[in-house]
Amino acid sequence: MINFNVPPFAEKATDYILECVKNQKICGDGQYTRKVNAWLEERTGTAKALMTTSCTHATELAALLCNIGPGDEVIMPSYTFVSTADAFVLRGATPVFVDIRPDTMNIDETKIEAAITEKTKAIVPVHYAGVGCEMDTIMDIAKRHSLKVVEDAAQGIMAEYKGKALGTFGEFGAFSFHETKNYSSGEGGALLIRDEKDIEDAEIIREKGTNRSKFFRGQIDKYTWVNQGSSYLPSDMNAAYLYAQLEIADEINDARLSCWNRYYENLTSLKEAGKIELPTVPTHCKHNAHMFYIKAADINERTELISYLKSKEIMSVFHYIPLHSAPAGQKFGRFNGEDKYTTRESERLARLPLYYGLTLEQVDYISDMIKGFYGA
């Protein structure tokens, strides 16, 4: 069986985790958490990176830093994971969903402005599949309407928009290190902070509302409770597992891109024959091969394709029931404008296996089976 996903692993991780145990430092903000933060800052150029227990928590932290509260509205795509909305619903805000672009599956930047009301406080673009949203347009809208931008870059590490790292355009960006991501700590995430003025508040909220971070830096002689907060610190053992992968980040990225490119090359003939659609990556975007997907004609064909691949020992999946059609989405949010593409495109998309360790021979086999399904 070719699994859909295999969590990434780097051999040094075992040594690093044992080092944490031997040093009796396994809680948050140990040496490996600091190393991950520093790596993220260097590679993205953000003012500050803070590792968190999940991308969900990183987004919750961003919502707190944006002072999102009851009665506020936050604009986002409906085609995303529930955490994008949950982080703001927990603050009492209303997610306002807008349609996506059918080419990149990202939020349609031309639909955002019409969804803005006097209650709107933030825009949350989601960089689907590690392909950047149209950030120039989104940042211009945000500036003209005095709105915050929180980038859901859960799938976006090592990807860029016009030469700049995803997650670094808005006031805040959130990465995921879940086991399905390009780099993993099992469960984990990180908050990217663009402006230095927000760093201290972020550290306080992340540390249960205390100024403990300043205490450990020797800036104060004791720490205390100074603001609202929660515990968003991951175990240093999780960070150690992740850091070993970040040390070979380019190797992992190159391997994933090789598989992605091989899929695209193999399946182009089906695209040209009008049988399927393949991912679109704008020329000004640098993607990270987070996923490879194809689009079938409709939901029925997709269901048949996934079942067929399973019979050939290949695990293919779909994801994201549009949030506005979910019970909680109807309860807590609303869709602005026409759902022209969100539901239709979500019902056509099937994700193929892609992970560090997948071989080109396996990609060729999967591609051949897909061709066989379409009689090619």
Verbal overview:
The structure is a single chain. The protein has 376 residues and is α/β, with parallel strands linked by helices. It folds into two domains: 12-246, Aspartate Aminotransferase, domain 2 (3-Layer(aba) Sandwich), CATH 3.40.640; 249-373, Aspartate Aminotransferase, domain 1, CATH 3.90.1150.10. It has helices at residues 12-22, 31-44, 55-65, 82-89, 135-144, 199-206, 212-216, 236-246, 249-272, 299-311, 327-332, 342-346, 360-373, and strands at residues 48-52, 73-77, 94-98, 120-123, 148-152, 160-161, 164-165, 172-176, 189-193, 285-286, 292-295, 334-335, 349-352. The strands form three sheets. It has an eight-stranded mixed sheet, sandwiched between helices. Strand 6 and strand 7 (164-165) form a beta hairpin. The radius of gyration is 21 Å and the shape is globular. The two termini are 23 Å apart. The mean pLDDT is 97.
Write the SSE topology.
Blueprint: H1 12-22, H2 31-44, E1 48-52, H3 55-65, E2 73-77, H4 82-89, E3 94-98, E4 120-123, H5 135-144, E5 148-152, E6 160-161, E7 164-165, E8 172-176, E9 189-193, H6 199-206, H7 212-216, H8 236-246, H9 249-272, E10 285-286, E11 292-295, H10 299-311, H11 327-332, E12 334-335, H12 342-346, E13 349-352, H13 360-373
Parallel strand pairs: 2-3, 2-4, 3-12, 4-5, 5-8
Antiparallel strand pairs: 1-9, 6-7, 6-10, 8-9, 11-13
